[in-house]
Amino acid sequence: MTATTQSTDLTADLRATALAALERLGATVPVAADGEEGLPVVSPLSGRSLLTLRRDGAPEVSSAVGQAAEAFRTWRSVPAPVRGQLIKRLGELLTEHKADLAELVTIEAGKIRSEALGEVQEMIDICDFAVGLSRQVGGRTMPSERPGHRLMETWHPLGVVGVISAFNFPVAVWSWNTAVALVCGDTVVWKPSEKTLLSAIGAAALLDRALAEAGFPAGVARLVLGEREAGEALVADPRVALVSATGSERMGAQVAPVVAGRMGRLLLELGGNNAAVVAPSADLDLATRGIVFSAAGTAGQRCTSMRRLIVHESVVDDLVARLVRAYGNLQVGDPRAEGILVGPLVDGGARERMLAALEEAVADGGEVLVGGSPVDVPGADDAAYVRPTIVRMPEQTDVVRRETFAPILYVMTYSSLDEAVALHNDVPQGLSSSIFTLDAREAETFMSEAGSDCGIVNVNIGTSGAEIGGAFGGEKSTGGGRESGSDAWKQYMRRATNTINYSTELPLAQGVSFG
Ligand code: SIN
């Protein structure tokens, strides 16, 4: 069999598997008509197009926003615990269809099975969280300075939330936003990455089913399948009260001024350039496992993937030797196969950017210690498989300070914790960080105001693999937004301050007298 025939077989197999999963999910697939210029669905497993879908542009986005705005008028007055019951049903459907949705995530995002299942589990977890939240969102009361008065806060839904998600978490990030936004009383229009359309169709079909069963309007949650034009229309639409966008720093820099210009609200989750500090006291066995998962797992394509390692000079040789050994054992290939830990990069462009970054790192004096080369996977000639790599750098040069969305881990050394923290924080991004140490002083310092400047600061675990209970997001060019757990729900609601006078007098604040 020739390589081309093998690729054709693989593509046919992926298409059949994806369509069967979508059928089990009860999804309608909007296939483009013959001759229509649609959106190709390309699987990174083969690098080839599986089918072509209908493309939504600005008019379709406008119509979806209109439906969501209309639905908001009734949805906002449905009691929050009743809205929570919808999310409870979504969680049940996700549990029932966990394997189906995970299959689509593997086919479109290239995640190994365990990570794809983990992504859907994260959706189930946020549904649980949001159901609890539906009985908890509420405000404070504060003492009034005036006798016979009460001061309190009430929280109200914002309106339509526009969710723009990235390919690397094709469904979980939508659920972080949607489960919370819906219990808060908002309606949602979702524009997923054009690289992961089938996963989005599958996930949206489950929510559509839950809405229909409960008799709620479909406009409560809408999906638009488009490219840049669709994204731009969503961001610019004044009826969209909050834009929650996940993606590159470049994308965020384009979205932010448009939303700010119309005084909309923004929730940005952009790039990360996440680092771990490895201190002299670290448990190197545990650190090795944590680093390999965060740096090489998901083929380095999480926002929280570890990209920099700042190691004390006394342990660097030992740690690097362990890491090089572990990287040597990583199996790269079809993420559906047993034993594979590293699937493909999302496309050839990602591989080109990885190879260009490595060339720049070497020109800056970096030494490639392991990996860094493309990998041929039989039958997948158009796919972009690479071997995860470790590069020892003499200093933190420009290429290290940029986020390259690929499995490159740059290793640098330090001699004092102050130096490690300075190196750690000297990048534009501020998403996730960690320190491996058994010294409580070092751990506390790293978590303190004088330590890491990131939104996520871990101790003795890697930088990736967040739980939904905490607020997720980061600082600086990462965008400052927080999604998912803790009190991130406040971003999806507006606050009203109420002063209630239950006396017969009308005292003015600050003792002002007026006639
Ligand atoms: C991401 O959003 O890229 C990562 C989240 C995580 O690692 O949990």
Structural commentary:
InterPro entries: Ald_DH/histidinol_DH (IPR016161), Ald_DH_C (IPR016163), Ald_DH_CS_GLU (IPR029510), Ald_DH_N (IPR016162), Aldehyde_DH_dom (IPR015590), ALDH7A1-like (IPR044638). It is a single chain. The chain has helices spanning 3-24, 58-75, 80-96, 98-109, 113-133, 172-183, 197-214, 228-236, 249-261, 284-296, 316-328, 348-363, 398-401, 417-425, 440-447, and strands at 39-43, 48-53, 141-142, 149-157, 160-164, 187-191, 221-223, 240-246, 265-269, 274-278, 306-312, 367-370, 374-375, 385-386, 389-392, 408-414, 429-430, 432-436, 456-459, 471-472, 475-476, 483-484, 493-501. It folds into 2 domains: 57-270 and 481-495, Aldehyde Dehydrogenase, Chain A, domain 1 (3-Layer(aba) Sandwich); 274-467, Aldehyde Dehydrogenase, Chain A, domain 2 (3-Layer(aba) Sandwich), CATH 3.40.309. The strands form 7 sheets. Strands 12-15-16-11-10-18-19 form a 7-stranded mixed sheet, with helices on both faces. The protein is of the alpha/beta class and 515 residues long. Helix content is 40%, strand content 20%. The longest helix is centred in the first third of the chain and has 22 residues, at 3-24. Helix 7 links the parallel strand 6 and strand 7 (221-223). The chain binds succinic acid (SIN). Succinic acid (SIN) binds at residues 168-169, 302-304, 464-466.
List the helices and strands and how they pair.
Layout: H1 3-24, E1 39-43, E2 48-53, H2 58-75, H3 80-96, H4 98-109, H5 113-133, E3 141-142, E4 149-157, E5 160-164, H6 172-183, E6 187-191, H7 197-214, E7 221-223, H8 228-236, E8 240-246, H9 249-261, E9 265-269, E10 274-278, H10 284-296, E11 306-312, H11 316-328, H12 348-363, E12 367-370, E13 374-375, E14 385-386, E15 389-392, H13 398-401, E16 408-414, H14 417-425, E17 429-430, E18 432-436, H15 440-447, E19 456-459, E20 471-472, E21 475-476, E22 483-484, E23 493-501
Parallel strand pairs: 5-6, 5-8, 6-7, 8-9, 10-11, 10-18, 11-16, 15-16, 18-19
Antiparallel strand pairs: 1-2, 3-4, 4-23, 12-15, 13-14, 17-21, 20-22
Helix pairs in contact: 1-4, 2-8, 3-5, 3-7, 4-5, 4-7, 5-6, 10-11
Succinic acid binds at residues 168-169, 302-304, 464-466.
